Amino acid sequence: MLLVTTPNVEGWRISRVFGLVTGEAVIAGGPIRDKAVAIENFFGGQVSAVTKLASEARELAALSIRQQAHAFGANAIVGCDLDYETVAGFVLVSISGTAVRIESEQGSYEPALPDADGEMAEVRCEKCGLMIPRLEPVCANCAAPRPKAG
């Protein structure tokens, strides 16, 4: 499922608008992560434990809107907006966008479909950890090839 922050997708036209999709995720850090964050904060730099929590929460929220959009019959989500908040060891992520159907002169874009468990058929890049949609042969972040299934 294509997610973009722009109101349209260059080279594609929106043939149908389904409406708003939203997803929220809250991830707890736990006492061990809290201590690791305190130590990293003391020495400065990026707080990897919080970064990992934010990434996990973002992926869960994005999965939620992809599933909603798929249920509508959409193949893309445009105008996506992400909001992050950290409160007392919790990372809250909210994502929203507009579920649409996009098409081009070459035909319709067909996104990855949820598997039997409702999960999107995506794999994690072995090099950088970004999720790679089923239809993409390489990672959009680092251009690493898609890992082989199995």
What does it look like?
This protein has 150 residues and is of the alpha+beta class. The chain has two domains: 2-107, Hypothetical protein apc22750. Chain B (Translation Initiation Factor IF3, 2-Layer Sandwich); 112-150. 26% of the residues lie in helices and 35% in strands. The chain has two helices and seven strands; from the N terminus they run E-E-H-H-E-E-E-E-E. Strands 1, 2, 3, 4 and 5 form a five-stranded mixed beta sheet that branches. The longest helix is centred in the middle third of the chain and has 25 residues, at 48-72. It is globular, with a radius of gyration of 17 Å.
**Could you give the order of the helices and strands?**
EEHHEEEEE
CATH superfamily of the largest domain: Hypothetical protein apc22750. Chain B
| Structure classification | alpha+beta
- For this structure, the CATH topology of the largest domain is Translation Initiation Factor IF3
The shape is globular
**In terms of per-residue confidence, which ranges show pLDDT below 50 for 5 or more consecutive residues?**
none
Distance between the termini: 22 Å
Considering DSSP H and I runs of 4 or more, what fraction of the residues is helical? 25-40%
CATH class of the largest domain equals Alpha Beta
Strand portion, in percent?
35-45%
Topology:
Blueprint: E1 2-3, E2 13-28, H1 30-43, H2 48-72, E3 76-87, E4 90-104, E5 107-108, E6 122-124, E7 131-133
Parallel strand pairs: 1-3
Antiparallel strand pairs: 2-4, 3-4, 4-5, 6-7
What distinguishing features does this structure have?
150 residues, alpha+beta, 5-stranded mixed β-sheet, 2 helices
